[in-house]
Amino acid sequence: MAHKNIQNFIILVSISSAIIGCKKPSNSDENLDEKSIKNENAKILSIKWNSCDKTIEDHKLKIKKTVKFECGKMDVPLNWDNPNGENITISLLRSKATDPQNRIGSLIVNPGGPGGSSLNLAKDLYNINALQSKFDIIGVDPRGVGDSTPIKCPISSSFDITFPNNEAEFQSVLQSSQKLYESCLKETGEFINHIDTVSVAHDIEAVRKALNEEKLNFWGFSYGTYIASKYAELYPNNSRALVLDSVTDYSQSLLEHLKTNAKEAHKVLNEFVNYNKNNPSSELHNKDIIKIILDTKTKLNQNPIKYTNPSTNVKEDFTGDIFLISIYQLLYLNEKDWLNIAQAIHKLQNNDLKTLINLVEQNSSDINISQTITVNCLDYPSSSIQTWSEYSSIMEEFKKESPIFGKNIASWFFLNKCLGWKNIKNISAKPLNIKIKQPVLIVSTANDIATPLKWAEFVKLQIPGSFLLYYEGSGHGAYNSDVSGCIYHVVNNFFLEKKLPSENSYCLKSKF
């Protein structure tokens, strides 16, 4: 069993495939049209901007510098079905175009998660001069995230068992999950049922109106691609250019969605194994890496290593299940980091955990796990697993798809979420219904453990006229994973000129 505080340790860069279902979200299928938003109270459509200084790091010059940004606050309806009711607040961060004479417009960015701060992403993108000169780059923290009105869930108290091995442990998970929902509802109130992606898309439209922009540019990463897709579906005439990087696909059933994820995990692990086994520079050169990983898991489950959780500063047990989840999340990184992962695995053979802990900590993100859970509960149907027999049968299916990660992927995504939540409402998975006339660029990597290329291919079929460009290598996030700069230049040129690459083109794999 993994420790209850595992979610404070692992890298939660983008758990977009952590999909479960619970209470029906507002506007799930009965979506508001533009007319209903035009009739809102005028105060909803105003942003209060203030000057604010932020420290950013210039990686090329290897210096930190202070930059003047604008911080904004905006009121939006808690429930878009009742736009004149109670309001919540969303936060924004804007860096204005440095070449205002040739300004193109506003570029909204979202890093995914769910639960990632868009404000931090907007700050990080400041150094992309090609875009910063022509666009106001704006991060909008989604409802419940970062500086926006938060959701309050006592997560750590509800995950005493993460990977159940018998009936009693399974029932404990169900009970903990139910207690989680009750605690979240008590602490957050009715807002907990309105953190869904459709509501976020309506918030983005309100931002567009407040900015007085005829059309928005939207750049979504991972789960952020689903926000961008939903926005395009609801407001097909209000976008100039959309980029979907590392795409999530919600058209599949829960099981098929996660099976696709498990298959990709197995493929990426094999890429990692072959890369290190055949690389003389690797600490795992010519080693049976799969056996090492399995033996390490068994050893750590039998005799966990005590370590200080860097997120909580509390002594905890590092188990075999935490080890597997850690390796899974580290494989979000591209090949240039794989030697470091191999070194961490090698050192762990001698009970040296420090290298792995440091590597995880260096690549951690600011994901809000409370929002990750809640959004996925509201966005996707319940797995409806209620018995140990059902659960154990599904675990066997996933082990076939991915012998190393399968059980952990399914267990983490099924049981660390809303399996025991009451008032579960199944919402059928369905393809996107996007009738957008403006171009949509989809970018992906060939080996992405979090958002498989297969999902990008599925989504391309759901968006008529969209274009898919992929990078031959590995990593989660094509824009950052392709160190050759191919994806970088294509995305920048697309935003600047709405120029698409030729059909059937792709970016060659970089050599490390």
In terms of topology, how is this protein built?
Blueprint lengths: L33 H5 L8 E12 L4 E15 L9 E9 L9 E6 L7 H7 L4 H4 L2 E6 L26 H22 L8 H15 L4 E6 L1 H12 L4 E7 L8 H24 L11 H14 L2 E4 L6 E4 L1 H11 L7 H11 L5 H9 L6 H11 L8 H14 L4 H10 L24 E8 L5 H10 L4 E8 L3 H4 L4 H12 L15
Helix pairs in contact: 5-6, 7-14, 8-9, 10-11, 13-14
Give a quick set of tags describing it:
single chain; 512 residues; alpha/beta; 9-stranded mixed beta sheet; 17% strand
Helix content: 25-40%
Spatially, the strands of the biggest sheet line up as 1-2-3-5-4-6-7-10-11
Q: What is the number of helices?
A: 17
Can you tell me the overall shape? globular
- The unreliable regions are 1-44, 157-161
Mean pLDDT, as a whole number? Answer: 82
Number of strands: 11
Amount of beta strand? 15-25%
Class by helix and strand content? alpha/beta
Distance linking N and C termini = 37 Å
Major sheet attributes: 9 strands, mixed
Radius of gyration over C-alpha positions, nearest whole angstrom: 22 Å
Order of helices and strands: HEEEEHHEHHEHEHHEEHHHHHHEHEHH
